[in-house]
Design a protein that fits this description.
404 residues, alpha/beta, four-stranded antiparallel sheet, globular, binds D-malate
Amino acid sequence: MVKMNDNYQKLPGSYLFSTVAKKVNAYQKAHPEAEIIRLGIGDVTEPLVPAIIEALHGAVDEMASRETFRGYAPDLGYDFLRNAIAENDFQARGCDIQADEIFVSDGAKCDCGNLQEIFAVDNKIAVCDPVYPVYVDSNVMAGRTGMYNKERENFDGVIYMPCREENNFLPELPSETPDLIYLCFPNNPTGEAIRKSELQEWVDYANKTGAVIFYDAAYEAYIAEEGVPHSIYECEGAKTCAIETRSFSKNAGFTGLRLGYTVIPKELVRGGVSLHSLWARRHGTKFNGAPYIVQRAGEAVYSEAGKAQLKEQIAYYMRNARTIKAGLTEAGFTAYGGVNSPYIWLKTADNMTSWEFFDYLLNKLHIVGTPGSGFGAQGEGFFRLTAFGSYENTLEAVKRLKSM
Ligand code: MLT
């Protein structure tokens, strides 16, 4: 008889955001009159900017005629997009990343989940706690962890790096040496950023120990402060130890369109094996390229008009972030993040657990957020709100929170 992948059985419950969505849908069904404000999952609400819409229309029209129709996209991405990414996201910031080191995909979440496939199952991973659940869950599915430990509320065989108030929500170099280190900055869920000198320590550490850093920079467009790196390749030596993933979801509103990319420098070699070659082999085998029309839309992100329009869009969300943080502080909450990121990480009221606070906000104030403990044991007692709602809803949510 067929045997299933038992590693899936190690995962408790459903995926965090599915659990939240189920609870919210059930509440809405039971209370159809409730005007629920959704500040849970980091999903954007502003429409695509005109430069992107124009590019989409143009690409759709191309699909209507034999001369310009496109079938399968090149599996690693169209050159027009890879060149635009290399020039704008890296070379313009002094990072020596070439177009052929960029792998275009249908979103950063897939890359975050899939990249572990090119590493051996007996590699040890290190993750921040709290952490974006995809890094851990995908490694559990692959069998790279032990069982779920109910007492500690995390998995055996994983190095968890606590990110708490006392260390400014930044991980410390672990005492046990990991093979694969997951870092995400600006951070999801805490919304806190890392300085370049601090990130350099991780790069030096990985080069010294032979570890590989998987760097998720999905929120880099929200960086407002000087000294905060937009890419890990701003650090010296990162090309020999780091993979970086980026998303078009948060900087350009592609959560529904789907587009992302991963950078693997050619110098990144372990045990004589090029990680670039392995990922190219994997991508070519399992992926048929992001849609042409979406890649054209991605190219428009880097046009002069696109850049100007997206700057405004990000400013819109960051006004929400400031509004939430200021409102929470006025209401007596302790809140972090929201300066270089669209996430605000607050301490729950009255020592409620994260899920108690979730239920309280949903039932009493009709506000949805994400319970901190859903991101890991160290997230207990915290709660995440996103700045991705409309300004009006953000104001209303703050008003309700102040009434608590
Ligand atoms: C989040 O809310 O953490 C993100 O939107 C989830 C994701 O990007 O997959």
